[in-house]
Amino acid sequence: MKKIVALLLGILLIIPVVSLSGCIGTEENAQPQESPAKPTTKNRQEVVSVEGKDLKTLIKNYKEYRKDYYEKNKDLFTKLAEEGQKPKVLFITCSDSRVVPSIITKSDPGDLFVLRVIGNFVPPYESALEYSGVASAIEYAVSVLEVDHIIVCGHSQCGACKALYQDIPEDPEMMAIKKWLKVAEPVKEYVLKEIGNKTVDKEELAELTEKTSIKFQIKNLMTYPGVKRRVENGELSIHGWYFNIGTGEIEYYDQEKDNFIPLELYKD
Question: How far is 230 from 219, CA to CA, in rounded Å?
């Protein structure tokens, strides 16, 4: 019996060593290592992933939002429900998941009336009924909510601006995209004319197109009767912003200088 117990103890002592060796590598490459510390909450939060959250995670986060954020701001939500929304800003930006207006501006519920659409393109008023979803959001914000400002926020690495220079296939699954990109066809034509015979790389072409597009969308906004009337009466201001995803920086469009300037230097 003593021999059997001793044999079992020997096996138990060997098992952890074998398992650890299998995780580290072969015996030749194995180096003495300390036991890995249990990851803390802080360490887990530092892990960066570009993969979006799945539905299960979103539901879990919603439950946490209800317990934490909502409870702390319950009075605000009650007031918004009773008195309605009174945003001062219409924020027009791209549907790109990397551009989040409330995070960029640290805004609370009720602060921004947000219109998100591919490429942050604004169809001219003559096409308003054809693109009624976008046009109605603009009209509602300007003529019903009477916002004080409109921000057109473009961004770097814009897929819609890039697609202007690509051939979209005649595919039933791509026809809406193909038609929508026609809204920004004048942007492409202008940029190509500006470049002329000059040689530009892909990054330069992309940024030039993205920033030129912002200027064109501001121009298109002015074709809306309500926007034009309120701008001319001094009741509404339109701003062009360019958000750099990689650096987190924003530049604003200075119409007098026809240039983009760091937002930190903006003067009202």
Answer: 15
Distance, in Å, from the CA atom of 6 to the CA atom of 195, rounded to the nearest integer, reads: 84
- Residue reference for tokens 């930190």: 264
Q: What are the contacts of 12-15 at 24+ separation with CB within 8 A?
A: none
Cβ neighbors of 212 (< 8 A, separation 6 or more) are: 187, 190, 191, 194
Alpha-carbon Rg for the chain in angstroms: 27
Which residues lie closer than 8 Å to 27 by C-beta, 6 or more apart?
21
Helix (H) or strand (E) holding 199: none
Go through 143-171 and write b for each residue having 16 or more CB atoms within 10 A of its CB, e for each that does not.
eebebeebbbbbbbbbebbebbeeeeeee
Alpha helices in 88-247 (DSSP H): 101-104, 132-139, 159-163, 175-181, 185-195, 202-221, 225-232
Give CA–CA dist 247/104, Å, rounded: 12
Q: What is the pLDDT of residues 160-190, one digit of tens each?
A: 999 999 999 999 999 999 999 999 999 999 9
Q: Is 262 helix (H, G, I), strand (E, B) or coil?
A: strand
pTM above 0.70, yes or no: yes
Whose structure tokens read 């470049």? 195
Give rounded-to-5 percent helix, strand, coil for the chain: 50, 10, 35
> What beta strand segments (E) does the chain contain?
89-93, 112-116, 149-155, 237-243, 250-254, 259-262
Mapped onto helix, strand or coil, the DSSP state of residue 109 is: coil
